[in-house]
Amino acid sequence: MAAEAKQSILARRVLWGLLLLALCLVSAFIACTLGSYPTPAGTTLRVLGSALGLTSHADLDPSVRVVIVDIRLARVCLSMLCGAALAVAGTVFQGVLRNPLADAFTLGVSGGAAFGASLAILTGAAGAAAFSGLDPSTGTLPVFALAGALAALAAVLGLGRLAGGSMGAMRRETLVLAGIVVSTFLSALISLMKSLDEESVSSIVFWIMGSFQGRGFEHVRLALPYMLLGLILILWRLRELDLLALGETQARLLGLNATRSRLWLLIGASLLSGAAVAVSGVIGFVGLVVPHLLRRVLGAGHAALVPASALLGGLLLLWSDVLARSILPGGAELPVGVVTALLGGPFFCLLLGKSTGSRS
Question: Which of 86, 111, 298, 312 is close enough to 287 for a disulfide, judged by CB 3.0 to 4.6 Å?
Fold first, then answer.
């Protein structure tokens, strides 16, 4: 009976994985056809085929190719990449801290990235890059944002060690509290920046709300190395993540150095979320909602949960971006962070209400 139950669980996980993968592929193609300038599916298929070198593109309109490949396909790739990174980071944060509300915001990583980008805008570093012929969205801003995210994580880990006692051990409770302190402090600094320089308010607010407008393949190339490094660190410690989810005492009884494993996993998740925020701005609820949805159908095992979170997170952010660039007339766009908040907030409240009702 035990063997049959394991096979049933494995079959269900494989089925869900294949379903999510198929949905991602189909959604990516459909997203390339949608926008303020819709293109027929046949034309889109020919353009994508020519971009992959599968078909000839001699008779294709160059402007259509630019719209589908350089604009839409680039945004599809970046949105799915960022959604996957945020969802995996949220899964790891929740597993490490054993906190269902854990996210990049909990540890101040998103706040650090937003502070770094705001600092670049306020000091004029982004403007100086643009004046010298560089694109600030692919150079200065992401570098400042990623540096801010890593600096925020370092501050949280430092506070966690200080509060851990004479041995400097990091406890999940102190890390959560340290993250809240750092995040609150950075939010206050961002508000101070906006009050000191009113001309930069719109740029800072637009960055904080998150958007893929104006993003391209260069942003994919910028974020991908950091995301790959973070993913490698997580996969390296993936089995230990299951042990940490059992609790500190159980993990130590099984011979795990919980402090060291937690540190590496937090660094990996922070690299993922920091790189995503660095190229897209602050986007919430993806890393919070996706793990909750998948635990209901796949269970708590991270070997299945992490790849499924990547697929569902990419799918969710892809369609959020499609809504953001299609819902308003005249080519106007909504910040994608607003769309994820509008979709994710009520949905998470519904999940929370069901969970509370099932316990009563």
Answer: 86
pLDDT band at 128 (very low <50, low <70, confident <90, very high): very low
Picking from 44, 93, 38, 24, the residue whose alpha carbon sits closest to that of residue 319 is: 24
In a domain, 57, yes or no: no
Instruction: Report the distance separating Cα 150 and Cα 160, nearest Å.
Output: 15
Average pLDDT of the segment spanning 127-155: 65
Pairwise CA distance, residues 254 & 236, whole Å: 18
pTM (whole model) above 0.85: yes
Q: In which domain, by residue range, is 167 found?
A: 84-359
pLDDT in the model for residue 278:
82
Please give the Cα distance from 166 to 180 (Å, whole number): 23
Q: Look at residues 41, 91, 30 and name the one whose alpha carbon lies nearest to residue 294.
A: 91
- What pLDDT does 166 receive? 39
* CA distance readout (Å), 238 to 14, 160, 293, 307: 18, 23, 20, 11
Please state the domain count of the chain. Answer: 1
Residue 65 lies in a domain: no
Is residue 242 in a domain? Answer: yes
Question: Could you tell me how many residues make up the chain?
Answer: 360
Specify the pLDDT at position 350.
Answer: 73
Give the DSSP letter of residue 171: P
Residue 21 in domain: no
CATH number at residue 190: 1.10.3470.10
Nearest to 114 by CA among 161, 182, 176: 182
- CB atoms under 10 Å from CB of 348, counted, come to 16
Q: What is the pLDDT of residues 189-206, one digit of tens each?
A: 888 887 877 766 777 777
- Report residue 237: phi and psi, to 5°: -110, 25
